[in-house]
Amino acid sequence: MFNPSLSNEQNALRDLARRFTQNEIVPIAAEADRSGEYPWELVEKAHAIGLINVTVPEEYGGGGLGHFEDCLVVEEIAAGCAGICSSFVTSSLGLTPLNIAATPEQMERFMKPLCAEPALAAFCLTEPGAGSDAASIRTRARRDGDFYILNGTKRFITNAGVARLYTVAATLDPKLRHRGFVVLLVPADAAGISLGKEEDKMGQRAASTREVIFEDVRVPVESRLGREGAGFRLVMDTLDKLRAEVAAMAVGVARAAMEAAVKYAKEREQFGQPIASFQGIQFKLADMAIKIEASRLLVWRAAWMADQGLRNGYESAIAKCFAADSAMQIATDAVQIFGGYGYTKEYPVEKYMRDAKLLQIYEGTSEIQRLVISRWLLK
Ligand code: COS
What we know:
By secondary structure, this protein is of the alpha+beta class. The chain contains 10 helices and 10 strands. A hairpin with a 2-residue loop joins β2 and β3 (147-158).
């Protein structure tokens, strides 16, 4: 049964992630946001202490833990910097299809070397013309003997240019929509891959986001995950699982915004008293806490279900939608509590607000989550 209390090991992992965030991420978060340069040294440090590849089985070099533990880590790292965290979560997004569908040979060939060193993966689904309508992708995988010839452009790919492995959703024929999907494992240095320009994003700027262009890339058939045509289900299953992590990111951002607002409200004086003494501020802070606690429980339930092998599409959509919308509200209210100062880069809350916005957009917009939820209700 779902038990929302942490074991000693889970508490220790959360403490480790919290210390790593305080010591390594918080000091550089503002600068990484300003420059938009990817802080690669953090991948090396996180890899060394086991804070990435958390859900990869131990025999292949990962942490051998569940999505639940991954969510504990993700909340902490996101509280330090959502951009850096999104790079780590996207790597999990790229590796989860292997956890679900790779053969032992594929795990040996792709997962083991990737996890042995500080390295990241990326998940290539979105295209210029295919965002919410994932089944409408046009990146083509044409069969040529023992190879697929891959052609197409993937857009808004987090970790493009820094990832070592691309997990690519392609179609045998766009007319087949979801029935034509294949998921291919493509090394980032394969001939025929090039990168578009770095996106100049509003938030989560530390993460590298670019186009990945495939031109006549030859991919061996044995690099395909699962059956031909079964790729859409694999993509959906992956998104269902990882939406818990994205929701955990939202909890982290929201918590950081609330903690900043609480501290500021106690320090800032107006009308001869700390603004925390005003009920208008107190109610805002209380609403933040309510939403954060509820979001975290939803995250933990969705992640726990994934770890039990249960379908969690409904629960993870609820967690992602509620946590992302809450994070946006909380970060906006934090800026409001800071007033004019909140609107400047002197304080971190404007960054939280910019970072939170993307949580309502990627890995399925809040509208797509509502669509998934209502389909479960109506079917
Ligand atoms: N798990 C397993 N299978 C699923 C599934 C899920 N969560 N959701 C759908 N499927 C299956 C369906 O059962 C159906 O299979 P059959 O043809 O065998 O019946 C098939 O997939 C097609 O499903 P559906 O008709 O519902 O597909 P739609 O084209 O209507 O799209 C949504 C479904 C909107 C849910 C999908 O396009 C989506 O998730 N979009 C958002 C994509 C996204 O998150 N992008 C972010 C990029 S990654 S950062």
